[in-house]
Every structure is written in structure tokens, then in C-alpha cells.
Design brief:
The chain has 782 residues and is of the alpha+beta class. It has 22 helices and twelve strands. α12 packs antiparallel against α13, α13 packs across α21 and α21 runs antiparallel to α22 (758-779).
């Protein structure tokens, strides 16, 4: 019995570890971009990088540990059942409850580990993560300011800088425009030729301005206008407190609370006390899921005799969906006080515990329910076989087509051969099976993330379904390169393990010739992804963004931003530059309210004229802006050279048409390559930050090519695995994907903050991994 115990535990533990890595990868990657952006934008040290990742993992483990137990038992026992090893063990006298006692060791260990994580590690990690993020945001804010961009994250200030040079512990700014908006109708304007900026350490920045001016006007009397010049002036600016950028959850403070604090709050008859009691029960119920999911997984794993791992994987997805559906719905109803807290939080565990016990009794005695589940494997295997045969027949019919045969004879082509058809069929089958599996997992995670909002806002299921359908194209675009990598590893791993690759080489076929059809398919996938992003994906992304806002209960949104308050005018050589400030712009009627125009000398950043008008409208006949009820001032040094009030006036120097002010605030993923290129050109001349958009423009070409890079990289890794199974290939793929995403995200965020050239930031990960893959492939014996 000891041999059986070790053998069974080894099988389920290996699958559980792999499942934990896979699920953690899927959940963790959603937050990776935001973490790397915080790290790069704030110039964090390597120690801070490591701490951020470590502090993030415990909250992910809260969900993935029970899922790992479920997938480990289901896949492990399904594999043993498909090879008839379970039948042999039971013939030796190993009963159903003996299997329960063996895998209970894994479940109990996971329960203890999960309990320690939820009760102690996760709250401490969340608290430390929040403190670290606040520290990074408050100590490195000066490095966020980009040249020729309006920066509005300071409290009651708007900043514009023409040139930024970062240094050790400080930044040097040239030609600074600073607007103090404590009085929005009459902002205090400060201009400076140079500023040295240092972090104050108390949530503020200290600016040492040199060679500048201050312009101040009385709010109710435009005749009172003061100009002062200075050689040097120190100015502290308070940094605004921003929302948490990583967790993105409204209950983040509760997640960071200790158990004693939650217990004390739970005794209060208030909404805060109810929330604390719910959180305390969740910390106990999620680890207990390891035990109840084990009770369900054992009989289902033992009964999947014909489907093998495919049955185990399908059942894992179904059970994960059902468990977290009951759990999420119960917690949401408990928060709304519609059901008792104990029932809401522990209901899923109760249901699965009872179902597991009944299935175990059915299996030990024989029954209808377990026979139904045992037929799932046969159905899945028949479906997969039918799918494979159908693809083979379709391809054979296509090859027999007279047009294809005539084309092949005319071109005297040696591609594709029968061998190519075989390799491509295996690769495409693996690719689509893996892609569909990942899509199902991602849809499940997204559904449960929104389930609380769905219940709270009573969102119609039709809306939820429409959102998920429009989310699928984006997921296909994001997951395809990873699926190419896994499919290559699995395909060539199987060919190598079954010695088919050796037989191909024995016929004189080079390894490169064997790999060629897969590289062709990967290149076609890359081209398809680019075309998909060019013509279809942006519209689907805009649709799913709008539906997500409905599910979240947010007000209707539009991409147009008529309330944009600051904009830099396009400047022609030798002409003055302008900054426009307005409190309202009616984009439908081309009308401004309370508009101020700051005009600067062409060869310096000295304010030479200021125009104010209570309103301004566009006259199409004269192609000019008509300013009403305002004034203009001209300046010479630190004195006012002239002051002219007017009822109606126009200025030929202000030649920007209404379309110039109708800038669209759109996400890069909501635009095609050509649309994004035009959008960037439109924004760059207006003083808006386009660094991030230019990185994304290059990524629209670089990202689809990752599919081809992953195919090149996957072949040598697959051949280096020897006779190990496909699960090893999946583990290797996850490791490579994590490495690639870390490097890619790091380079991308370095480009976003202008610390790397745009081309380098977007293309370096592709070139680096393509070089590594090509080098390894060329060194592989052919």
C-alpha cells in the first residue's frame, strides 16, 4: 500500500503543481502591466520590483490553491484511469475510500497552506503592497513629467514643460509654464526659463525656479493685473493622492486588515461590521474548498476511464465555474443582506461537500449518477476523434480538388507534402484545443470578476453575454502567441517521444524541412492577427468597453472630451506660440466659454500677450474665432504695455479651426494601425502625451509577429525535453511566456516613460527572443 500511496501522490501532486502555476499565471498576468508601469514610471529599485511581485502573489494564491488541488486530483486520477491502472489497483483490493485517504494528504496540506496564506500572509502582503505603492508614488513623482505634455496630477496645478532632463535624485526642466488653479476663473500663471525639481519626501515636490515671471489677475476686476519677475524662487507642490493602481478593488482596506481588527469590527451592527464578518468568513472558507473539492474530484477522476486527461481538464473547468459561481453569488447576496452571511459565504462548500459525499457513496456501491459521469470521457474522446477525422477528410478533399492539383503541377511545388499535411494537422489541432481551453478559463475569470456588479446593478444576462462575446476577439488576439508556443512544444514533443521525428530524419528529411510547415502556419497566424487588429478588433473592443461600463453601473461615456481645459496650439516657424485655457467648449456649436489665450515670444518662453473672452464662437464665413466681452494685454518685460477691453473682436494670429480642439480621448486598442497613426499626428502638435501611443503603434506590428517568434523558440525547447510528456511542454511554455511577458512589459513601460526610444521599446523583446530561438534552433542536430 505504501508503494501505491507514493505513486498516486506523485501523480496528483505533479499535476497540482502544474495547475497552480498555470492558474496563477492566468490571474497574475492581468495585473503585470500595471505593476511594471508603476515600477518603471517611478524608477523603483530591483528590491522594490521583487517586493511588488512577492506582495501580489498571496492574494492570487487564495484562489489558485483550491483550483490546483482540484486539477491535480482530476488530471492525475484521470490519467491513471485511462491507462487502466485504477482498474488494476482496485483489483488488488484498493477501495474507493482508500483513494480518498491517499489524496486527502494533498488536500489537507493545501488546506493548511491556504489557511496560513489567507489568515496571515495575504493581509500582511496587501498592507505592505499598499504602503510600497504609496511610497513609490510620493517619492518619484518628478520623473513622471514628460516634455511638451500638460501634466494635471498635481493638486490644483497644471504644468507644461518644453524640455525635461532626469538626473540623480532630481530633474532639470527648461521653459516651464505653471498654472495655479485655486481660482479657476483667474489662474495664477508662473513662467520660468529653468527649474530644478527634487522630491520633498513628504508627498510634495520642491521646485527651484530661475529667471521667471508671475502673472496674477483679480477674479472680479480685470483692471487689477500684477506682474512680478524673479531671479530665483522656491515653490513646493503637493502631490495628489491617487487611487490604488494594482488591486483595483473597493474593499482593498479590508483585505489589508488583520484578523483581530476584522473580529472587532464584526461585532458592530453596522455595514462596516457586516463587511468585516464576510471577509473573515471568506478567509476561512476558501482554504476549506481544498477539502470539499477533493471529495468531488476523487469519484469523477476515478470514473473517467476513456477520456483521460481531456476529461479531467473539461471537468476541472466545469467544476471551477460552478464552485466560484455559487461562491460569488452567495457573497454578493450576503453583502446585500438578502441571505445570512454563513449561508452566502459557505454555501458553495456545503453544496460541493454534500455532492462529493453522495458521489463517493454511489461509486462504492454503484449507481446511476456515477455512470453518467463515467460516460463523459467516452463522449469527449469520440468528439475529438470525430473532429480530427473531419479535418483529415476536408484536407484530403481539398488536395483532390482539380484546381489545387493543377496549380501544384504548374508550379512543380514540393510544398505541402503528405508529411507537411501531417505535421500541420497535428499542430493546428493542438493549437485550437489549447486556444479554446484558455478562452474558457479567461471567460470564467472575467465573469466572476464582474459577478458582484452584475447582481448589484441587476444587469440583464443578455448584456453580460453580449459583453463576453465581444471580449472573445480581444482574448484570441492576446492568447494566440502563447497557444502557438504551447502547440509547438506539445506537437514536436510528441513527435520526438514517439520516435516519429527520428523516422523522418532517417528518410533524409532535415529538421528544418520538418519545422517549415509549422513556421509557415505561425507566419500566417501573425499576418491574420495584424489584419484582425486592423479591421475587426477595434470595433469589438469599443463595444465591450461600453458594455463593461453598463455592467459596472457607470454613466454612459463618449470618446469625445469637450471639457479639455488646456491645449497647446500648433506653432509655425517664426510665429508666436499659444496655450489655450477654457472652462467649457461646446463641440456641437463650436462655442467657448471663459477662454484665455496665452501668447509667447517665438524665440523664448516669455509671455507677450494675454487674451480673455467670456465667450468665443467660430465664424465660418471669415474662418476666424469671434471673441466677445473680453480684453487683451500686451507685456514688455515686467510691465503691461497695453490693456484693451472689447465687446467683439477677432485675432488673425489665432488660426486654429474648431476641429483642432475636438481631440478624441481613445485607447490604442480601440483603433486600427492607420487610425492610431493619424490620431498620434493630430495630438502631438497639441501638447498631449503621445509617447505611450507611439509605443502601442509599433506594438501593433510587433505583437502579431510574436507568434512566429514563439514557433521558432518552441522547437529547440521541445526537442530538448526528450521523452518527457506533454505536461512538461506546458510547464516550459508557461515559464517562457512569463519570461517574455516580463521582458516585454518592462521594455514597453520603459518606452512609455520615454526612457527608451519607441522603436527599441516595442521591438526589443521580439528581436531578443527571435535571436535566442534562432541560435538554439541552428545548434539543434538536424
Amino acid at each position: 500500500m505504501r508503494i501505491f500511496r507514493r505513486y498516486i501522490l506523485g501523480e496528483v501532486v505533479s499535476h497540482a503543481l502544474l495547475g497552480c502555476v498555470l492558474f496563477t499565471f492566468v490571474l497574475f498576468m492581468r495585473d503585470l502591466g500595471r505593476i511594471l508601469e508603476l515600477v518603471v514610471r517611478n524608477s523603483a529599485s530591483f528590491a522594490d520590483v521583487a517586493r511588488i511581485f512577492l506582495y501580489t502573489l498571496p492574494n492570487v494564491f487564495t484562489v489558485t490553491i483550491p483550483m490546483a488541488v482540484l486539477v491535480g486530483i482530476l488530471l492525475g486520477l484521470s490519467r491513471l484511469a485511462s491507462d487502466s491502472e485504477i482498474t488494476a489497483m482496485r483489483a488488488c483490493g484498493v477501495g474507493v475510500f482508500s483513494f480518498v485517504r491517499i489524496v486527502a494528504l494533498l488536500a489537507a496540506g493545501a488546506w493548511v497552506l491556504g489557511l496560513f496564506n489567507t489568515m496571515y500572509v495575504a493581509p500582511k502582503a496587501t498592507e505592505a503592497l499598499l504602503n510600497l505603492e504609496d511610497s513609490l508614488k510620493s517619492t518619484q513623482a518628478s520623473f513622471e513629467v514628460q516634455p511638451r505634455v500638460f501634466y494635471e496630477d498635481f493638486r490644483n496645478y497644471v504644468l507644461y514643460v518644453q524640455d525635461v532632463r532626469a538626473g540623480a535624485g532630481a530633474s532639470l526642466w527648461h521653459r516651464v509654464f505653471l498654472a495655479d488653479l485655486n481660482q479657476p476663473a483667474s489662474p495664477l500663471i508662473t513662467t520660468s526659463e529653468q527649474a530644478v525639481v527634487m522630491n520633498g519626501g513628504d508627498g510634495s515636490l520642491h521646485m527651484r525656479l530661475r529667471d521667471g515671471q508671475q502673472h496674477q489677475i483679480a477674479p472680479n476686476d480685470p483692471n487689477q493685473y500684477n506682474i512680478s519677475t524673479f531671479g530665483e524662487m522656491s515653490l513646493p507642490i503637493q502631490i495628489s493622492t491617487q487611487d490604488d493602481v494594482h488591486l483595483g478593488r473597493s474593499d482593498t482596506p479590508i483585505l489589508a486588515s488583520s484578523n483581530s481588527v476584522l473580529w472587532a469590527r464584526s461585532r458592530m451592527h453596522t455595514p462596516a461590521g457586516r463587511a468585516a464578518w464576510i471577509e473573515l468568513n471568506k478567509r476561512l472558507s476558501y482554504p476549506a474548498a481544498c477539502l470539499v473539492l477533493m471529495l468531488v474530484a476523487v469519484p469523477l477522476g476515478l470514473s473517467s476511464k476513456r477520456g483521460g486527461k481531456s476529461t479531467g481538464f473539461v471537468l476541472t473547468i466545469v467544476l471551477v465555474f460552478v464552485y466560484y459561481f455559487f461562491s460569488s453569488v452567495g457573497v454578493a447576496l450576503a453583502k446585500q443582506q438578502k441571505i445570512p452571511i454563513i449561508v452566502g459565504v459557505w454555501g458553495a462548500n456545503m453544496i460541493f461537500g454534500l455532492a462529493g459525499w453522495l458521489l463517493l457513496r454511489q461509486m462504492s456501491r454503484g449507481g446511476v449518477a456515477i455512470n453518467i459521469f463515467s460516460s463523459i470521457g467516452l463522449g469527449i474522446s469520440k468528439t475529438l476523434a470525430r473532429f480530427s477525422r473531419k479535418n483529415t477528410l476536408v484536407e484530403a478533399h481539398a488536395m483532390q480538388s482539380s484546381a489545387v492539383m493543377r496549380a501544384r503541377r504548374a508550379l512543380r511545388s514540393r510544398f505541402p507534402l503528405i508529411l507537411d499535411d501531417y505535421v500541420m494537422r497535428e499542430f493546428l489541432t493542438n493549437f485550437f484545443v489549447i486556444l479554446i481551453s484558455f478562452l474558457m478559463l479567461s471567460l470564467i475569470f472575467n465573469f466572476f470578476e464582474l459577478l458582484g456588479d452584475i447582481i448589484r446593478n441587476r444587469t440583464a444576462l443578455v448584456t453580460v453575454g453580449d459583453y463576453l462575446l465581444n471580449l472573445i476577439p480581444f482574448m484570441i488576439y492576446q492568447l494566440s502567441p502563447l497557444c502557438v508556443l504551447i502547440a509547438v512544444l506539445v506537437t514536436f514533443g510528441v513527435l520526438n517521444r514517439s520516435s516519429e521525428l527520428v523516422a523522418m530524419k532517417a528518410t533524409g528529411t532535415s529538421l528544418y524541412r520538418v519545422v517549415a510547415p509549422v513556421l509557415v502556419i505561425a507566419a500566417l497566424i501573425a499576418l491574420s492577427l495584424f489584419a484582425f487588429d486592423q479591421w475587426y478588433l477595434p470595433a469589438a473592443n469599443r463595444r465591450q468597453d461600453a458594455l463593461r461600463a453598463v455592467i459596472k453601473g457607470k454613466p454612459a461615456q463618449t470618446f469625445l472630451r469637450p471639457d479639455r481645459k488646456w491645449i497647446f496650439g500648433d506653432q509655425k516657424p517664426g510665429e508666436p506660440s499659444h496655450i489655450f485655457y477654457y472652462q467649457f467648449f461646446d463641440a456641437d456649436h463650436d462655442v467657448f466659454a471663459n477662454i484665455t489665450v496665452f501668447e509667447f515670444q517665438p524665440d523664448s518662453f516669455v509671455l507677450q500677450r494675454r487674451i480673455f473672452a467670456a465667450s468665443a464662437h467660430w465664424d465660418a464665413a471669415s474662418s476666424q474665432w469671434i471673441f466677445e466681452r473680453g480684453w487683451q494685454r500686451t507685456f514688455t518685460g515686467d510691465t503691461t504695455a497695453s490693456y484693451q477691453p472689447f465687446e467683439v473682436s477677432s485675432f488673425a494670429e489665432i488660426h486654429q479651426p474648431p476641429s483642432y480642439f475636438k481631440k478624441e480621448e481613445r485607447q490604442a486598442q480601440d483603433m486600427s494601425y492607420s487610425q492610431l497613426h493619424g490620431y498620434i499626428n493630430d495630438l502631438r502638435q497639441s501638447g498631449f502625451d503621445t509617447i505611450r501611443l507611439r509605443v502601442q503603434l509599433n506594438r501593433k506590428v510587433a505583437y502579431p509577429l510574436i507568434s512566429l517568434v514563439m514557433a521558432i523558440l518552441g522547437v529547440p525547447f521541445a526537442l530538448s525535453m526528450g521523452k518527457r510528456g506533454s505536461l512538461t511542454g506546458i510547464a516550459v511554455a508557461i515559464g517562457v511566456a512569463i519570461t517574455f511577458m516580463l521582458i516585454s512589459g518592462f521594455f514597453e513601460d520603459m518606452g512609455n516613460v520615454n526612457k527608451l526610444p519607441v522603436i527599441v521599446a516595442a521591438w526589443s523583446p521580439d528581436l531578443l527572443f527571435a535571436f535566442i530561438g534562432s541560435y538554439l534552433l541552428l545548434r539543434t542536430p538536424t
